[in-house]
């Protein structure tokens, strides 16, 4: 009952702020590059290329709420073990080289602050949400097919983006996102490493439509 009241009050506040907003609603489409650090010993950082889009609803002139959805194409993960490995409580890995493909998706939401100058609009953001990759699942399956006994379930872990960028107004309805640079934290777990924090970097750039 209490949660329903909180949700209702939040919706009323959102609609009230939207009605009095001094700026506009924006949708964007972007190219995105993600430098992903898998934190598995012997597996180098990955370069993901992809893209996506989202929307920002601005309140007043400097504050907005942003929704951000990105997808990244497959990249190859290769891991070699020169001798069998026993992971206490998690399984065994036979000696060999294991290759798997992996992609990634992120879905993030949060506040955006910007400097509303007429032509150039710098902005900063902190976004929270989740992500998904099948890289760890596919790598575990490759190991199990060779006689191993590790298993990694599908995951949608906590994910965070913090950074900012610059938009360039082209017309009353169109702007260019010259660059957005974010630190990305993901928290994937797997039986091959004891850490579940991956510290990554993201660049985005694209086109913004203003309504």
Question: What is the N-to-C order of secondary-structure elements (H for helix, E for strand)?
Answer: HEEEEEEEHEEE
In angstroms, what is the radius of gyration? Answer: 21 Å
- Overall outline: elongated
- Total count of strands: 10
Write down the CATH topology: Porin
Indicate the percent of residues in helices: 10-25%
Q: Kindly give the count of domains.
A: 1
Question: In oligomeric terms, what are we looking at?
Answer: single chain
Portion of residues in beta strands equals: over 45%
- Kindly report how far apart the N and C termini lie: 36 Å
Computed structural class: mainly beta
Average pLDDT, all residues: 86
Q: Please state how the strands of the largest beta sheet are arranged side by side.
A: 1-2-3-6-7-8-9-10
Q: With helices defined by DSSP (H or I, 4 residues minimum), what is the helix count? A: 2
Which parts are unreliable, with pLDDT below 50 for 5 consecutive residues or more? 12-22
Largest sheet geometry: 8 strands, antiparallel, barrel
